[in-house]
Structure formats: C-alpha cells, structure tokens
Design brief:
It is built from 10 helices and no strands. By secondary structure, it is an all-alpha fold. Helix 5 packs antiparallel against helix 6, helix 7 packs antiparallel against helix 8 and helix 9 runs antiparallel to helix 10. 25% of the residues are buried.
Length: 202
C-alpha cells in the first residue's frame, strides 16, 4: 500500500511540473524551463517504480490434467489424469511417462498397460515395435479379454504384415464386443480385410 501511495505522489508531482510549464512561463519565472523539464524524469521514475513494485501476474496454467500430482492416497489416479491430459494435447511421450508413474503406484492393470502402449506407439510414429508390443503382451497376460489390448495387438500385427495373427486377435476382440454396435462393425470390417490378406495366393 505504501509503495502505491509513493508511486501516485511521484507521478502526480511530475505531471504537475509539466502541466504548469505554460503558467510558469507566463509568470516569467527565471527557472521555469528547468522546473518543467524536471517533471519528465520524475514521471518516468514513477512509472518505473510502479512497474517494479507491481505484484506478479498469475502463473499460467498447464491446462487440465497436466499439473504434477502431489503425493497422496490418490497419487496414482492423479498420474492417470495427467497422462490423459497429455494425450489429449498430443504430448504422447509425456503421456506414456505419466502412465508409467501411475503403474508404479497402482496395482497391475491391463488398462494402464494398454494406454501406455498406445501412447508410446503414437510417440514412435504409430510403430509398436519394442516396448509397446511388450506392454500389450503383458496386458493380455493379465486379461486375455481386454478390449483395447486385443485391438492394439491386432493393429500391431497388421502393421507388421502378420495378417493371420491380426485376424486371430480381432476375432477374439469381436467375441467380447456387444453385437451390433459401431465398434463391432468396424472390427468385423478389419477382420474381413485381415482374413482376405492372410489367404495364400491372394
């Protein structure tokens, strides 16, 4: 509050000296030009002091889901929310790292493994070789009927040209999906394509 008052007084004094220049000149005061000229640096000093003493603005937010979780009982879930926020913003490597942090804090989960594999593959230019494939296999070992893991496994095999394996994984996926749904129709189309490509002499 004191800084604010000093700033106002400083700026007001400088302004008064500048504005009063015509009056001082009319009164034929010998030092009028010097007094008026002194007002300019006083104003500048006041503005500088105001900017220097101004409170800092709010810290920019990283956006929903991106803030670093604080330690606590729900720390693992917080890392999952952070990973989802990164994935939504296209920061797939950061998302994969956040899923890894969540996996270290939560019980083994096919869902976390599959999400981590998916974001890692996206970070690698939609390539599943290496760690993504390993994570998908680990997820299916935990839950052989896990929807996303089966879908990713089929996609990975298809991109490698292993169409018979892709067809097998998508066939297993189709068996656990609700019949007649949009996803089931999409999987059926992909399955038919993989089966056609897997036939000898196609």
């Amino acid at each position: 509050m004191t800084a604010f008052v000093l700033t106002v007084v400083t700026v007001a004094l400088g302004a008064a000296l500048v504005v009063s220049w015509p009056l001082l000149r009319g009164a034929r005061m010998p030092h009028a030009p010097w007094l008026a000229a002194a007002g300019i640096p006083v104003i500048v000093a006041g503005v500088w002091f105001a900017l220097r003493e101004a409170p800092p603005g709010p810290t920019p937010s990283l956006g929903p889901g991106l803030a670093t979780p604080r330690p606590g009982v729900d720390d693992g879930e917080a890392w999952i929310r952070r990973a989802r926020g990164f994935a939504e913003s296209g920061r797939f490597a950061d998302a994969a790292a956040s899923y890894a942090e969540a996996a270290r804090r939560l019980p083994p989960s096919a869902s976390i493994l599959a999400e981590r594999a998916d974001t890692l593959a996206m970070a690698q230019g939609r390539r599943f070789e290496g760690e993504p494939d390993r994570l998908i296999a680990e997820a299916l070992a935990l839950d052989p009927r896990h929807v996303k893991s089966l879908a990713l496994s089929g996609t990975s095999a298809y991109t490698r040209g292993e169409f018979a394996i892709a067809a097998r994984q998508w066939r297993a996926l189709l068996a656990v999906l609700p019949a007649g749904g949009e996803m089931a129709r999409e999987v059926a189309e992909r399955l038919a394509d993989a089966e056609r490509r897997a036939r000898p002499g196609r």
